[in-house]
Amino acid sequence: MSEGALPKEDAVLRVDDLQKSFGGLAATDHATFAVERGTITGLIGPNGAGKSTLFNLISGFYEPDGGTVEVNGTDVTGMEPYEVAEQGLIRTFQTPRKLEGMTVREAMLVGPRKQPGESFLTLFTSPGTVAESESANLAEAERILEDFEIDHLATQPATDISGGQMKLVELARAMLAEPEVLLLDEPVAGVNPTLAKKLKEQIRRLNEQGTTFLLIEHDMEFVMDLADPIVVLDQGHVLTEGTPEGVRNDQRVIDAYLGGGA
Amino acid sequence: MSLLDDPKAAFADLSRPERWVLGVSVAFVLFLLVAMLTGALGPTYFLFLVGLAGMYALLSFGLNAQWGFTGLINFSVAAFFGIGAYGTALMTASGSPIAGGFSPLVGLAVALVVALALALLIGIPTLRLRADYLAIASLGLAEVVRLIVLNERWLTNGSAGLRGIPGFFDGWPVLSTFPEAMPGLRLVVIPGSPVILETAFWQAALNVLLVLAFAGAAYFVLRRAHRSPWGRVLRTIRSDEDLARALGKNTYSFKMQSFVLGSLIMALAGVFYAHLNLYVGPGDLDPITTFYAWVAVILGGSGSNRGALFGGIVIVTIREGTRFLNDVALPIDPAPLRLLLIGVVIVAVMRYRPQGVLPPQRELIWPSAVDGGGTPETPDSGVRERKGGDDDE
Lengths: 262, 393
Ligand SMILES: Nc1ncnc2c1ncn2[C@@H]1O[C@H](COP(=O)(O)OP(=O)(O)OP(=O)(O)O)[C@@H](O)[C@H]1O
Ligand SMILES: [Mg+2]
Fold this sequence. Notes:
The complex is a heterodimer. Chain A is of the alpha/beta class. Chain A is 38% helix and 23% strand. Chain A folds into two domains: 11-98 and 174-257, Rossmann fold (3-Layer(aba) Sandwich); 99-158, no CATH class. The longest helix of chain A is centred in the middle third of the chain and has 21 residues, at 127-147. The mean pLDDT of chain A is 90. Residues 373-393 of chain B have low confidence and may be disordered. The interface between A and B is large, with 51 and 44 residues.
């Protein structure tokens, strides 16, 4: 099934023979691949190929019909999303998620995991600890917003910013959760070229700092420039995996896109 | 509220609707004071009204912790209120068919434990599912609890209700004899209409003390919780539960905590009611209480603790205020008029201020982190304040 799969020594994410069908439709059809630590791995495929479904299966939002998912060597198949996140895997969504009634920096502060202030009792037994971690998280949130050059938005309502800025905030917030592997579903869809370039730079920078990425993207220029290797999905199964050049020149990939898109 | 520390700065900090509410509240209090001094409103009755307002505030605090914070739709406010009232009544009332005669503190503890059990009972199967399941299940629960109270005579005395509930402070040192020990006072502010303060007044004052303690504690807890990372997870769940899950939050657990917290606060309202009224009956579990609590929260502004307080007071004002209309010749009965009035108020609020009168306004970050945590210039600038920024300040 995974003819194109490259050998992976240190996989942060391993998907093995994953299956999911909706009624008669096999949205994920025996998909097998792995994401090597330290890479930016691309996941491409025509519309409806099952990319988002795969993300939902990996991150625990869908229960697979068969197959396994491993994060950092731990079998997370069938776990709740929060348990998968605890293993260091964080995902974003294809459509940006808005947090009503929050400012941007407030929305950012949802990101950090295991905050002492998330325990109700700690709020009353140890408010000092809560204050300390909240200050630290706020400083960190503002530092990341600065890195992303959107610190001027910090106190804006989170619902009042542009779609592209929202994508940046999502990425920034996901980083506050300190993921080992971050799954991005179409990070630049609907984002203007300037912001897309910024996002690309940020992803590359964060990758250099140690975060592994798996990203779905239809913008071929974007994904070919950023990701290596690239996994190609078609009708729920992995068609091939390879370098950007290899994938670009692969006849099966071209056929899949022509077949699916026509 | 910080009003007490630094009134001027606090006032300057208020947004327009806040000032408006403050103004109306002050005018309203003055009006009540005048009514009291002129003898139109008995001081004991006035304190009773304050007690009721505190009770409704507790109910709306509880619902706000569920719906306002987390978006949980609970249609069994009346059931939790009733559980609180019956819980303490069954333990303390002389007419209780099962226990009776215990200290009200035991009653309070039992009421809270039963409310906790009921919250878990309904939360465990529904909170993992989509939001509407809780709504439907709670609707059923309210009716089941009401029917049990009405029909299980061996347990609850059925439709006869429970009599002989002691005051909450009965048996306490000092406080139990406080109303009798206080001298009767006769204040003459306006010649010809003296204000007489007797035992009943002091008894009512004790009740007000109790409800202030309950509501004050609830407010303190909710206020702190709302501004905390804990509250932030709840607000994230309300907006987009999947996002919270993707960021590693155990949303089931958070929803459960929010549901239990709200239910316990509603039960507190019931406990207070039982020791205020000294009698509880199955009629106290009528769904109208649920309706009032929802109106109060929506009116005040979902998610806002102050709003819930405000909404609770408005409800009591409408509920009790319409009684005075009995004196005026009216073409319709005050009871339907009351509901009509509430309907009109809700429609007006939804039309002109859909977020409620006092929606949660300021950014909710743990206070010391924003004030002292190295973030200059921008503390305390509110989300909505900025949106409509030009007409504030
Ligand atoms: N919850 C669901 N119920 C039923 N069918 C679904 C569900 N989710 C996805 N599908 C179907 O599964 C197939 C794969 O969908 P998926 O969203 O994973 O594709 P995708 O590769 O992400 O596409 P796109 O590039 O358009 O985002 C589609 O045919 C879709 O209609
Ligand atoms: Mg998709």
